[in-house]
Amino acid sequence: MRDPLELHRQAIVIDGHSDILMPVADGKMRLGDRTEVPDPASWQPPTPPLTDAETHFGFPHHAEFFGSMGQYDIPRWREGGVTTQVCAIYLDDSQLDWALKRGLEMAYALHHAVETNPGFELVTTAADIRRLKAEDKTGAILSFEGFEPLGAQLNFLDLYYKLGLRIASLTHVRRNLYADGCYAAAQIGGLSPLGRQAVERMNSLGIVIDLVHIGWPGFWEVLDLTTAPVILSHSTSTQFARANLSSHENDPEPGLLGKAPRPRLIPQRDRPMLETLANNGGVLGIIWFYQKDLDDVIADLETALDIMGDDHIGLGSDLYGVQLAPKGLEDISKVPAITRKLVERGHSDEMTLKFLGGNYLRVFEQVWKG
Fold it and tell me: Each residue of 250-295: pLDDT tens digit?
């Protein structure tokens, strides 16, 4: 059997999504430090504790307080052989009244980490990624998880581009001025006129469009409008069919665009979406969040592989809370476990290298300027 560690060392490894800029911008941690979090079993929440209404989608209080801490940082990226990590700017509902300020705080947090950690760089071109791999360094790509930091000022997108923004989704799960997210309402609409302009501007600037969390009509509208390959940075092909999720019987089914609220097998309507994403030349980032264990992540990957082919799958970890991480993939340093499992299951080196980062790199080379 081939040596999985040697294969992993050869790979350009790109992970499609992390929310780690949230605690960094809040001053809870520094990216250059290997951050540890207390055991959830013995940790006591702050007084007064958060109410369910104050938590993200009913997350455990430990996950709400620490978020992605203890799961992403420069030491862990180095340990996992990660060449480039996508780091998202995401705004909570409570931050929407000062959205531009919060967005800039998070962009600054990444720039400051780059300035203060030798060997860690902001990635703005595909050539940067190849160079970082050759020089045994690590980098980060700035992304939007929703256009809220712009408000109604689409021209501010150009300013964020100058700050390094290279990937962007129009929405998170809520409705905004650009489009409806996947949980926006019982009847989800598509893109607004401003949203259609945003697609055109992203194509013009060379920003990769991320379809994650957008509502069903918007998904198809973006694919109709775009002139470039897109990505779905952190999602699933199997809808967490084996995951132990809570039931929300009255929720609209978000499908592969959001974190599925209940266990179910892949709906028939998802297959055409995955096939169309592949026909666009795009990439689906296989999510780890809420998966049970490494085997579930591999099963999800192999389902996507069967539907889409080996040119259209990638990493999309989206770890958020140690209690919610799959066994064997508790933090980003565990990426080599995926490589080992793929080798054990007889997948080719070519497929494995494409999955670990080659497919994202192809999209970046096609879309980014320079």
Answer: 333 444 444 433 333 445 567 888 999 999 999 999 999 989 999 9
Residue 177: which domain range?
4-367
Q: Cα separations (Å) of 348 from 228, 288, 306, 338?
A: 28, 22, 14, 13
Task: For residue 306, give the CATH number of its domain.
Answer: 3.20.20.140
Q: Among residues 212, 164, 208, 168, which one has the least CA distance to residue 316?
A: 212
Using an 8 Å Cβ cutoff, are 187 and 166 in contact? Answer: no
Burial of 97 (0-12, 13-18, 19+ CB in 10 A): exposed
Residue 169 to residues 4, 137, 148, 176, 346, Cα–Cα distance (Å): 34, 27, 10, 12, 35
Structural domain total, the chain: 1
Confidence grade of residue 138 (pLDDT, cut at 50, 70, 90): very high
**Does 167 have pLDDT greater than 80?**
yes
